[in-house]
Amino acid sequence: MTSDNTHTTLMIQADFLTYVADSSIVEVLKQLSDVQLIEETVPNYIERYVGKVDLVTRYKGIPHIIEWTTSEEPKLRVEKLYDKPLQLAAYSGATNRYYGYHLFGRKINHATIVVALPGEEAEIFEFDRVKLIHHWKKWDSRLKRFYGLTA
Question: Rounded CA gap, 145 and 34, in Å?
Answer without folding.
Answer: 37
